[in-house]
Amino acid sequence: METIQKNNFFLLVMFLFCFMISCDDKTEFNEYKAIENAALEANKKIFFEFDVKDTISQKNLFINIRNNKDYQFSNLYLITELKFPNGTIVVDTLQYEMTDTSGQFLGSGFTEIKDNKLFYKEREAFPNSGKYTFNVRQAMRKNGEVNPIPFLEGICDVGFSIEKIE
Description:
Blueprint: H1 2-21, E1 27-34, E2 39-41, E3 46-52, E4 59-67, E5 75-83, E6 89-97, E7 114-124, E8 130-138, E9 151-153, E10 155-164
Antiparallel strand pairs: 1-10, 2-9, 3-8, 4-7, 4-10, 5-6, 5-8
């Protein structure tokens, strides 16, 4: 009798675990790239590759940034490129707030690492099916300077995700 109870308990725990990890069925793509020494190099593109089959449904696309206390700025400038299967390339220069008005980091997390889920494209439908590539690079400059900051310290990971709209 005791063995049956233990087996039932084990099955219940496994079921709950599987249920918890499968709850986020709206995420179609999610990938992070670790940044060496938590310093994002200027002009170094971080690449992501994904396949699109659904050309009808709209999706939200996000750039995900993990930063630590070494990040010295209140904002973040990024240059992105989205390459379509037909060769079309869309280039965007984006600016995101990284702190509130008091200088506290935005994002989620209880430790010194903050996760920032930043909108890249909202309610977008992919026009072509096939393989897409997305890349992002930092474009931070000090005031009055033309060249980007060689190593943007405090950026631990860069990610890209695509979510279905419900």
